[in-house]
Amino acid sequence: MEKLKLAVLISGRGSNLKALIDACIMPGFPAEIVLVISGSPDAAGLKYAQDARISAHSVDRRDFRNRIEADSRMTSMLQNAGVELVCLAGYMRMLSDEFCAHWRNRMINIHPSLLPAFKGLNVQQAALDSGVRFSGCTVHYVRPDMDTGPIIIQAAVPVLPDDTAAVLADRILIEEHRIYPQAVRLIADGRVTIDNERAIIAGHCTPQGAITNPQPDRQS
Ligand code: GRF
């Protein structure tokens, strides 16, 4: 069967790119990465693309007169590669409305919080400061407003009393690497539709029960 053609857009470390590369080489995974674009030429994550022999380029805003021109260059590259789904993975630049409109419902993002809580940057510190007992990560379709759009999948992790932002980020990142490939698989399998700005998953498997944090004390 034809695989869904993905592009992954990165700006830095690229660990989610790596998770997607690893998923795509698993037998039967219904998507393949045909292009990686980095927002800057020195993004460490570009190495993962090179190692996997995936076509990788950087599109640096500073080489263009404005955001619209840079984004339009990216759209040409994506179209030339036959990309069907754009995956933002730590891509740190705001995208133009034109780019968002062109790739509407064909572009997804991963964010390290349980949206709509804690949009933007430094979200783990914001979660700690707020005292929430759970945080996590979200894969969602992209809309022009930052960290908004129909939610495809989320994973929750407990926030622990001694957490620092870095410790919480590491706990969340493990789940990011799990759910981003899952979201891509759902889309590639044609199981996701958008209805009234909500993503509906066909054959949705729901988790059983609830978890609490802190857990009730054990009765002696
Ligand atoms: C991840 O935490 C992702 O959720 C956020 O940016 C970070 C990128 O990390 N959007 P990496 O470059 O994938 O390692």
Secondary-structure arrangement, i.e. CATH architecture of the largest domain: 3-Layer(aba) Sandwich
Distance between the termini: 57 Å
Placed side by side, the strands forming the largest sheet appear as: 3-2-1-4-5-6-7
According to CATH, what is the class of the largest domain? Answer: Alpha Beta
Essential attributes:
single chain, 220 residues, alpha/beta, Rossmann fold, 2 domains, seven-stranded mixed beta sheet, two-stranded antiparallel sheet, 9 strands, globular
Give the topology.
Layout: E1 4-10, H1 15-24, E2 31-38, H2 46-51, E3 56-58, H3 67-80, E4 85-88, H4 97-102, E5 107-111, H5 123-130, E6 134-141, E7 151-158, H6 165-188, E8 192-195, E9 198-201
Parallel strand pairs: 1-2, 1-4, 2-3, 4-5
Antiparallel strand pairs: 5-6, 6-7, 8-9
Helix pairs in contact: 1-6, 5-6
Bound molecules: 5-O-phosphono-beta-D-ribofuranosylamine (GRF).
5-O-phosphono-beta-D-ribofuranosylamine (GRF) is lined by residues 10, 12-16, 45, 89-90, 110-112, 173, 176.
Walk me through this protein's architecture.
By secondary structure, the protein is of the alpha/beta class. It has two domains: 1-103, 3-Layer(aba) Sandwich (Rossmann fold); 109-203, Rossmann fold, CATH 3.40.50. 31% of the residues lie in helices and 23% in strands. It has six helices and nine strands. The protein has helices at residues 15-24, 46-51, 67-80, 97-102, 123-130, 165-188, and strands at residues 4-10, 31-38, 56-58, 85-88, 107-111, 134-141, 151-158, 192-195, 198-201. The strands form two sheets. A seven-stranded mixed β-sheet has the order 3-2-1-4-5-6-7. Helix 5 (123-130) packs across helix 6 (165-188). It is globular and about 65 Å long. The termini are far apart. The mean pLDDT is 96. Residues 10, 12-16, 45, 89-90, 110-112, 173, 176 line the site of 5-O-phosphono-beta-D-ribofuranosylamine.
